[in-house]
């Protein structure tokens, strides 16, 4: 079986509001994207790594790789307007059959254990996505301005890697973009796939706001 990892890093990080896109911010002196790629390269299934980057950042990434002696083999692919289009570009670069994990570049703390478990479960079930139960109470805000409690036991917070049979995900991504496509599972579900959940990891945070960098730095320090 052939394994692939599409690492999507084509975003601009508008919520972070930093001058450098968040995937390049330094964690313990190294761009956080390098930790993400390293996590996949440590997987014993030896996935082929496809990195999706905005075309205007390809040469900057080359410079970073040179400056940090980063030599993990990976193919760089042009990003798209939305995450959806970036994933689609990554999928286009895969010609063979196999299992593909799609992962946010900005989740650098993903463990190799979760990556391996994702590939194994997707191989058996056709797909799988990690989720964790919310620790806060949750409410739904309605259009009329009122709100109501939801049972958090019925909810899961979805992470990446989201892992699929290549052919199934390629077929799912043939539809035009819809706003509700916030991840790969929503695209696959729209095409009729039943999504399988696996246990995610509390440390597998998505770097979105500045304070997430501080949290990530603490987790990283604890791993040393
Ligand atoms: N056109 C896009 C948009 C997002 N992503 C990637 O998808 C992941 C999750 O997206 P998000 O956290 O929203 O990143 P940004 O779009 O960069 O951030 P923001 O929404 O705050 O602008 C990130 O690794 C991001 O680089 C991508 O590959 N292509
Ligand atoms: C894919 C994702 O990380 C799953 O939680 C999430 O949907 C990405 O959302 P974003 O708004 O693009 O950060």
From TrEMBL:
It is an enzyme of class 2 (transferase). It comes from the Bacteria. Keywords: Nucleotidyltransferase, Transferase. Its EC number is 2.7.7.60. This is 2-C-methyl-D-erythritol 4-phosphate cytidylyltransferase. It comes from Pedobacter africanus.
